[in-house]
Write a structure and sequence with these properties.
The chain contains 11 helices and 8 strands. With 250 residues, the chain is of the alpha/beta class. An 8-stranded parallel barrel has the order 1-2-3-4-5-6-7-8, surrounded by 6 helices. The chain binds 2-phosphoglycolic acid. The site of 2-phosphoglycolic acid has 13 residues, from strand 8.
Length: 250
Amino acid sequence: MPKFIVGNWKMHGSLSETHTLLGQLTEAGASFERVEIVVCPPFTALFVAKQELEHSRIKLGAQNCYIGSDGAFTGEISPSMLVDMGCEYVILGHSERRQFFGETDELVARKIFAALEAALTPIVCIGETEEQRESNQSESVLSRQIGQSLSKITSAEAGKLIIAYEPIWAIGTGKTATPRQAQQTHAFIRAELRKKFGSVANDMRILYGGSIKPENAEALFREPDIDGGLVGGASLNATSFLSIIEAAGA
Ligand code: PGA
């Protein structure tokens, strides 16, 4: 299975920055043969991004969505609106949404369900805090997040999900899990998914996220249960994102 690399731009990217960055990425398109790539710009840049990516293999994703398809929900954006905009993916349950916007596993579960109904592929984020890790709670936290966030999902639907393990202590901090630590956790996550969904879990993609950089990417992607990466900061610069893509295709 080709590695899968997602760029999470977070709240970055004016229209002109989107144009420049995607122009640089699409120009380098020839090196993408063995890697699947998704970029997730902010909502306001999706339309421009779709136009920039028209003849490219890079796919488009969003960073969040609401649970309904339409209605009186001021300020929200539905999965079908994202599809209308050309998105095929949506990041759900990112730790920043859980931490700063109060998203619970229950809400994430409903969002996953809504995204799948609209034929969007959810990229579901899970991960423990530094405190939880230090008090040996990582596995119980991950197991709870998997159990509750994926509570509405059947085994057939599970095959359509992408999971992203992002230890919160590694996000934007420059600290990365070592390849060994990440592999152990990914193997644990796959075992949990197998308990819940059976053999479908063997082919589910589990991405690593948290301070992925050109310098650490290749070693992480060499691990058997690391199927790719969710890249924040380093996806905002064409040179560093391209070298991460190259590491994934190595
Ligand atoms: P980072 O972010 O690569 O900047 O650590 C990853 C993420 O939050 O998805």
